[in-house]
Design a protein that fits this description.
Order of helices and strands: EEEEEEEEEE
Radius of gyration: 16 Å
Shape: globular
Distance between the termini: 13 Å
Structural class: mainly beta
Strand order of the largest sheet: 1-2-3-4-5-6-7-8-9-10
CATH superfamily: Calycin beta-barrel core domain
Helix content: under 10%
CATH class: Mainly Beta
Number of strands: 10
């Protein structure tokens, strides 16, 4: 029997599930690209949600990027997110959310970005996520490799299953 969703996570229950879709990316110094994506948001009955994301190349299906993390609701409007990437980047975010049973908006700004000695330099990350009518859209902006913060990714995903 699956665990009961912790009451602290109830405001974000609309995000729980598996999401599939596609997106596009751009950034100075790299060619524009398109990708297919899967995001899974789940829970284990504790006061946080788990987050898993992976992408693959739209044209040949080869893996591109993945990340794992956690979302923690602080109160009726504030939340935190921690995201780790296999490329040696860890993001710590603080932000706010607004939700109801059918929709949600989360606006997260990095408070810390740590990188390993071999990771590309990333100074700042902004994640804006929206859910409405079983569609998740997001915009991700970064300040990296000495460039100012600007849009890097934009995607739209459909709900594949409920958590």
């Amino acid at each position: 029997m699956p665990p009961t969703l912790h009451e602290a996570c109830q405001p974000l229950s609309v995000i729980i599930g598996e999401w599939h879709g596609s997106g596009a990316g751009q950034y100075p110094g790299i060619a524009e690209f398109e990708y297919q994506e899967q995001i899974i948001v789940s829970h284990v009955g504790k006061p946080f949600l788990t987050y898993s994301q992976k992408t693959k190349n739209s044209s040949d299906g080869q893996p591109l990027h993945s990340e794992q993390g956690f979302l923690r609701i602080i109160d009726d409007k504030n939340l935190e997110m921690v995201v780790a990437q296999p490329t040696g980047i860890v993001e710590v975010h603080s932000g706010f959310y607004a939700s109801n049973p059918n929709s949600c908006v989360m606006d997260l700004h990095s408070t810390h970005v740590a990188v390993t000695a071999t990771a590309k330099p990333v100074e700042q990350v902004h994640r804006l996520l929206r859910i409405a009518d079983d569609t998740m859209t997001y915009d991700l902006s970064i300040a990296a490799v000495g460039k100012p913060i600007q849009q890097h990714l934009k995607a739209s995903l459909e709900r594949a299953s409920f958590g």
